[in-house]
Amino acid sequence: MTEKDFILTTTDFSTLNAVNYTWKTPSNIALVKYWGKKEHQIPENTSISFTLDACFTLTTLEFSKKQNESGNFEIYFEGEKKDDFKPKIATFFERIEKYCPFLTEYDFVIRSRNSFPHSSGIASSASGMSALALCVMSIERSLSTEMTDDYFYKKASFLARLGSGSACRSIKGSIVVWGNHKEINESSNLFGVEFPDEVHSNFKNFHDTILLVDEGEKQVSSTLGHELMFNHPYAQERFNQAEENISKIKEILKSGDLKAFVNIVESEALTLHSMMMTSNPYFILMKPNTLKIINKIWKFRKETNLNLCFTLDAGANVHLLYPENEKEAVNSFVVSELIQYCQNNHYICDRIGFGAKQV
Ligand code: PMV
Question: Which of 25, 29, 35 maximizes ligand 1 atoms within 8 Å of its Cβ, making it the mutation to test the pocket?
């Protein structure tokens, strides 16, 4: 599919009535990371993620015929009016207008809330933008009754990508690939697709316990981080490595080789952070407690031979990934050894989920 396939050709919006749509969409955690993009949110490399379950955004989009020429929208987050969220949403609407021209005819009210604390350092852009994209697609579906589910979800992912790259992986499926990779059928730079191959039972019900090391706003936005991959001395090598890691993880997901999984996932997390440390300006998002946790995990693995591993987002929090049959051992390890490194002892127990749901 090309970008043109996502432009709505209908020009009669008279059947659109003022209603509202609500979607609940999950966050996701990348195993092979996206870091670096081209124009129009096209990724420099393929990424793959687990869809989460407990960390989600619930968004209602209300719309009504616009009252004046310029149009208007309001945002409420957890019941409070949030004008400081407006610029990001306005940019999103501007980017998707070409594909959803009906947007210019309406006024909107967005009401959103997260299942996780806003200031927890967990990025809400993936779940937030995917929820909004799905609400917009529900409007569009009411205009074109012949729309297939496949098109609905692909376009939702396409739109979500224009809001925040990783958001395109928060629409459908438990394991999602974004980026055109020669070994992944139907994969695309324009939207995320469900990992199409067989997945070993070791990866069913996988857990992600998120240790909140540093609750608070990120010091460096991912927008700036991606920009710093332009002219980065190691960028090309990194992009090649990510493509190779996708090939490897594809085999690992099939074979169920947990040791190889641990190796690739931790290497990806540290590579992401080494890209930050070697950009110019350089920066460090890990905190002393992030490193303490990582060292504890390595020690735990050595002592127990279990398959607990960590990954990191663009922040200091640590995601602990482990299979279902190791959950008791890992939970007691977390409680006895790791929560001391979490801010206010906060952590979130999450697991692999199944994608967005209309409410
Ligand atoms: O979607 P963005 O632009 O916020 O970038 C997210 C980048 C990482 O979370 C660090 C990695 C990823 O693939 O999710």
Answer: 35
Say whether pTM exceeds 0.70: yes
Domain-embedded: residue 47: yes
The answer to whether the CB of 34 is under 6 A from ligand 1 is: yes
Q: Using CA atoms, how far apart are residues 207 and 210, in angstroms rounded to an integer? A: 10
Q: Write out pLDDT tens, residues 289-329.
A: 999 999 999 999 999 999 999 999 999 999 999 999 999 99
Lookup: tokens for 156: 């939702």
Which ligand 1 atom sits closest to the C-alpha of 165? 1
Q: Does residue 222's CB lie within 6 angstroms of at least one atom of ligand 1?
A: yes
185-210: per-residue pLDDT in tens?
Answer: 999 999 999 999 999 999 999 999 99
In a domain, 163, yes or no: yes
Ligand 1 center–CA 30 separation, angstroms: 8
Q: Are residues 135 and 269 in the same domain?
A: no
Specify the ligand 1 atom closest to the Cα of 35: 7
Element (H, E) at 24: strand 20-32
- Domain containing residue 298: CATH number: 3.30.70.890
Q: What is the DSSP letter of 102?
A: G
Q: Shortest CA distance to 277 belongs to which of 285, 269, 289? A: 285
Residue of the nearest CA to atom 9 in ligand 1?
313
Residue 119, classified by CB atoms within 10 Å of its CB into exposed (0-12), middle (13-18) or buried (19+), is: exposed
Last residue of a domain, one of 167, 197, 227: 197
Q: Of 197, 219, 247, which one is at a domain's C-terminal end? A: 197
